[in-house]
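Ticket #4471: structure export looks truncated?
Reporter: QA, pipeline team
Priority: medium

Steps to reproduce: submit the single chain below to the structure queue and open the exported record.
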Amino acid sequence: MSDRPASPRAGCRESRNGSSQLIHLSLAEIRRLITRLTNRRPTPVEHILHWSTWRRRRQHQARTSHYKRRGHSP
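Actual output as written to the record:
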């Protein structure tokens, strides 16, 4: 088994201002998770949740970079 967090919030680091470094779950992400978790072809739950965490972390990084590049705070 891998050392990946078991849930989207597990292992999440806090930024300096105390906010999470993940974006909030969007309706589209919730729909995607439900679809993946109820799919007939079994995919390990840990993999689905890890991928969702990775994706939301990257979205947070992209949003932060976008604001920094324009001289604003998120």
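Status: closed, not a bug. The export was complete when the record was re-opened. Leaving a note from the reviewer for reference: The helical segments are 27-37, 45-69.
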